Automatic annotation (TrEMBL):
Protein family (similarity comment): Belongs to the peptidase M1 family.
Lineage: Bacteria, Pseudomonadati, Pseudomonadota, Betaproteobacteria, Burkholderiales
Protein name stated in the entry: Aminopeptidase N
Domain Peptidase M1 alanyl aminopeptidase Ig-like fold: 452-559
GO MF annotations, alphabetized: alanyl aminopeptidase activity
CDD domains found in the cross-reference section: M1_APN
Domain Peptidase M1 membrane alanine aminopeptidase: 228-433
Keyword NAD assigned: no
EC number: 3.4.11.2
Keyword Protease: yes
Cofactor (UniProt): Zn(2+)
Domain of life of the native organism: Bacteria
EC category: hydrolase
Length: 895
């Protein structure tokens, strides 16, 4: 059924402490649970007690030692009609569950011969009967018993209290977590693992033990994860004054995992993808992902665990804030202002590629949703990444020091509590009473309540004689599901003004005594507002060019009203790296958009643009990473976002023509870029080296593309050589991509070689699957990718049971390869439906993720639209569908 935010009520009973014992066995695990329960003052004695439960077998249930009568609800919950009347009483439960049959990977499950848990959001109820809601926080003691040879490592949250041997080759460990926590933060691990460990001393002088657990043989790939963890601990102390609060902090890697990682108190459980890395097996992007996710989970210890969510509608309270924190961490780790700007560009790119489409589709929902059927469907890019932007705007509105004051107040007020998004924003505002946030708090909170991406348009009126510029900002918002009318947002607009010679102009608003620097933040709170800048007498006849929304100061779609000449000026001179990148992207995007109607070819790029791009590519002192981002045209799905009826084939064709022109016109420059960015020193995954490799890889792609078009074999030959003997995975993979995306005849042989060299390494095999799923449809022989994906589903290395495999093959195909997925023969759609249904039989969470790839069928032009709709309808019509998938396809088909 539908769960509504407005229906929240406080729990009638709470759990003070819980004592758990596990006799671990893959087929049948015995769980003993002793709960100290207390009745709320407002709850009459004798009120029935309802405990969540799912797929469990109950063996016994005692209240204060007496046996109790009970019944079960349909979904498996346990109802005790006559609980003990005492205000506080003890409930003893014994039940069993079947970890090896648990293919949903929620609750207690087996993977690679070990036991692991995933309890967020509602997995604990699949382990034992409980009040499985985040506002019930208990102190946990846990005893694990298992076969010693098979499961030498026994872990749970908190501190190890005791361990020893038992009869029959079994052993035990007892853990105690002193911090009260909701059930979703419980974890246990029992497996044959090894660990890298490191002792650290905190600023406060306390000793802590950090451990990273992996399977035997993977220890050599844990150095980066450990370094990232150490850096995370130091960063949170330095930036937010937050220290590690446990003696021991553990990370455990597991290969079957539905998400990226999980912040269980003191015992983070990670997808191997975000732990294991070596230069030979992981790309620079993988290294960066590890740093970011290790940081993210660690930062949750304060933003999520010490202060948690009152209910799941408040998910962004912890996720938006923690994404904001991990983004800031990565920016600080990048080591320079320009590398931090590159990091920011990457974050905004992701927001636009994933969150903007979500916000304009059938699953659009506010950062704080109002209702859900299945909470797992709401671990979305809106809750996470847009939520982070909403936190970032609060930072912008109160300033960095003000934000720190706000965070301090938040912890002072709410440490140990389960709270709401309102509590967070209130703390930030209260700590900054004179800020524009405090002045507009109620209105600012529309960001939490209204779905959809607002449009912001900017127009200027220049009075050369008076040296006066009027900037008029207008905002509007389109309707979204369940929200027809929107109220105005509070939009912070960071800006600067440039003279036509590139100078930064002083910013003085009419009525101000003096200019306030060359950059400032305007706050738009009305639907339309004008700002008059004065003292611009030396800006010249044509007047200043505004550089708006610097650093992407608000998650909006900006219509800046600028022409190409003005964009070229920003590309060349803007002091804000983000807006320089933005100018390049818009110039390229507008070419594609202008050519879309009709069926002609992309016109030749004009010389001014080519010259400007060349200047960026060759500019001394500019980060290579920035150059790579600026010279890569927006991806097809971002172009598709801008049009009414999407023709994926046409967009693909035009973008390929754009790539071909860039390869042709900048040929000598690409050859230079390749040479100039070869690294001679040892591998480091830092911003400088990653940037060089990224740009060299782009150059190689362009050179191979050019060579294939001209029948020249030198560059494809070099790329093939790189696949074989590249110095690191980033180089080898870059060369492989150049061959596959360049349509080289060597692509097949290179893929085979890459597979052989993978030697069964799961994360490398994932890449092998992903590359084939992303392979460009050869413009000459279209229709070849979908059949190949179907064949790969049968490959001995493929399994639907492993979420990473599914994501790398299926999501890459459906999401990153629109021209191959959207075909008139509907082959991609049929494949999609087959996979969704097959997955839904055992892992609804992953099935629902895959189901989302076609939710926006409505934006397609014919014949794709009808064919896609039919595939969605076929899934929706399946007789046994999970609530997860039903919610997605139901919304997709709804008017
Ligand atoms: N809290 C985790 C994180 O963001 C994600 C867990 C999501 N789990 C789920 N079943 N939806 O770090
Ligand atoms: Zn998180």
């Amino acid at each position: 059924g539908l769960i509504r935010r407005e229906d929240y009520s406080a729990p009638a009973y709470r759990i003070l402490s819980v004592d758990l014992t596990f006799d671990l066995d893959p087929a049948k695990t015995l769980v003993g649970s002793k709960l100290r329960i207390t009745r709320d003052a407002a709850t009459p004695a004798g009120t029935p007690l309802r405990l969540d439960g799912e797929g469990l077998s109950l063996l016994r249930c005692l209240g204060d030692g007496e046996s109790l009568s009970f019944r079960h609800e349909e979904g498996g919950a346990l109802i005790i009609d006559n609980p003990p009347a005492a205000e506080t009483f003890t409930l003893e439960i014994r039940n069993t569950c079947a970890p090896e049959k648990n293919l949903e990977l929620s609750g207690l499950y087996t993977s690679g011969g070990g036991f692991f848990t995933q309890c967020e959001a509602e997995g604990f109820r699949r382990i034992t009967y409980f009040l499985d809601r985040p506002d019930v926080m208990a102190v946990y003691s846990v005893t694990l018993r298992a076969d010693k040879a098979k499961y030498p490592v026994l872990l749970s949250n908190g501190n190890l209290v005791e361990q020893g041997s038992l009869d029959n080759g079994r052993h035990y460990a007892k853990w105690h977590d002193p911090f009260p926590k909701p059930a979703y933060l419980f974890a246990l691990v029992a497996a044959d693992l090894v660990c890298r460990e490191q002792k650290i001393t905190s600023r406060a002088g306390k000793e802590h033990l950090l451990q990273v657990y992996v399977r035997r043989g993977d220890l050599g790939k844990t150095e980066h994860a450990m370094a990232s963890l150490i850096a995370s601990v130091a960063w949170d102390e330095a930036r937010f004054g937050l220290s590690l609060d446990l003696e021991r902090f553990m990370i455990v890697a597991v290969s079957d995992f539905n998400m990226g990682a999980m912040e269980n108190k003191g015992l983070n459980i990670f997808n191997t993808k975000y732990v294991l890395a070596s230069p030979a097996t992981a790309t620079d992007a993988d290294f960066a992902g590890i740093e970011s996710v290790v940081g993210h989970e660690y930062f949750h210890n304060w933003t999520g665990n010490r202060i948690t969510c009152r209910d799941w509608f408040q998910l962004s309270l912890k996720e938006g804030l923690t994404v904001y924190r991990d983004q800031e961490f990565s920016m600080d780790m990048a080591g320079s202002a320009s590398a931090a700007a590159v990091q920011r560009i990457g974050d905004v790119k992701r927001l636009r590629e994933f969150q903007f489409p979500e916000d304009s589709g059938p699953m659009a929902h506010p950062v704080r949703p109002d209702s859900y059927v299945e909470i797992n469907n709401f671990y979305t890019t809106t809750v996470y990444e847009k939520g982070a932007e909403v936190v970032r705007m609060q930072d912008t509105l109160v300033g960095r020091a003000g934000f720190r004051r706000g965070m301090d107040l938040y912890f002072q007020r709410h440490d140990g509590q389960a709270v709401t998004c309102d509590d967070f924003a209130q703390a930030i505002a209260d700590a900054n009473p004179d800020s524009p946030l405090a002045a507009n708090l109620a209105q600012f909170k529309h960001w939490y309540a209204q779905a959809g991406t607002p449009r912001l348009s900017a127009r200027t009126r220049w009075d050369a004689t008076a040296g006066r510029l009027r900037l008029t900002l207008t905002q509007s918002a389109l309707p979204s599901p369940g929200q027809a009318d929107k109220q105005a947002f509070v939009i912070p607009v960071r800006l600067g003004l440039l003279a036509r010679d590139g100078r930064a102009l002083p910013l003085q608003l009419d009525g101000e005594a003096a200019p306030a620097g060359t950059e400032r933040v305007l706050v738009l709170s009305a639907t339309e507002q004008s700002f008059d800048f004065v003292g611009l007498g030396d800006a010249g006849e044509a007047g200043p060019v505004p550089s708006l929304l610097r650093g992407f100061s608000a998650p909006v779609v900006l219509d800046d009203g600028l022409d190409s000449a003005e964009r070229l000026l920003l590309l060349r001179h803007d002091a804000d790296a983000f807006n320089r990148w933005e100018a390049a992207q818009r110039l390229l995007q507008e070419l594609l958009l202008a050519a879309l109607p009709g069926d002609g070819d992309l016109p030749a790029l004009d010389e001014a643009l080519v010259e400007a791009l060349r200047a960026v590519l060759r500019e001394d002192g500019l980060d290579a990473a920035f150059k790579e981002l600026a010279l890569t045209p927006p991806i097809e799905s971002v172009i598709a976002e801008q049009v009414e009826a999407v023709d994926p084939q046409r967009i693909h064709r035009l973008r390929e023509q754009l790539r071909a022109q860039l390869a042709e016109r900048l040929h000598a420059d690409w050859a230079w870029a390749w040479d100039a960015h070869q690294l001679r020193e040892g591998y480091r995954p830092d911003a400088h080296q990653s940037g060089c490799r990224a740009l060299a890889n782009l150059a190689l792609q362009m050179l191979v593309l050019h060579a294939v078009a001209h029948g020249d074999e030198v560059w494809p030959g070099r790329a093939y050589q790189r696949v074989k003997d590249g110095g690191c995975m980033t180089e080898r993979l870059g060369a492989l991509l150049a061959l596959v995306h360049g349509g080289s005849a060597l692509a097949g042989a290179a893929l085979e070689r890459f597979h052989a060299d993978a030697r069964g390494d799961d994360l490398v095999l994932d890449k092998w699957f992903a590359i084939q799923a992303a392979a460009t449809e050869p413009l000459g022989a279209p229709g070849s990718v979908a059949p190949r994906i179907r064949a790969l589903l049968q490959h001995p290395d493929f399994s639907l049971k492993n979420p990473n495999r599914v994501r790398n093959l299926i999501s890459t195909f459906c999401r990153d390869n629109p021209a191959a997925f959207h075909r008139a023969d509907a082959g991609g759609y049929v494949l999609w439906a087959d996979v969704v249904l097959a997955l839904d039989a055992f892992n609804p969470q992953i099935a629902a993720r895959i189901a989302r790839h076609l939710e926006r069928w409505r934006v397609l032009a014919e014949p794709w639209r009808s064919a896609a709709r039919e595939a969605v309808a076929r899934v929706a019509g399946h007789p046994r569908l999970s609530a997860d998938v039903r919610e997605i396809v139901g919304k997709a088909l709804d008017a």
